[in-house]
Amino acid sequence: MNKRIIKLAVPNIISNLTIPLLGLVDTALMGHMDSLIYVGAIALGSMIFNFIYWGLGFLRMGTLGFTGQAFGANNKKEISLILYRSFTIAMVASFFILLIHPWLIEGGLSLTNSSIAIKQEAIKYFNIRIWALPASLIILSMSGWFIGLQNTYFPMIISIFSNVLNIGLSFMFVYGYGMQTEGVALGTVIAQYLALLLAIVLLSKRYGKYIIKYNIKEVINKHLAELMNVNKDIFIRTLGIIFVLSFFTIKSANISDTSLAVNTILFQFFILFSYMLDGFANAGEALSAEAIGAKSKKLLTEVIKRTFIFGLAFSLIFTIVYAIFGNQIMSILTNNKEIILAASPLLFWVIAMPIISFPAFIFDGIFIGATASKAMRNTMLYATLFVFTPIVYFGYGDELTRLWTAFLAFMFARGLFLFLSLRKSVFIKVNS
Question: In terms of pTM, does the model score above 0.85?
Answer without folding.
Answer: no
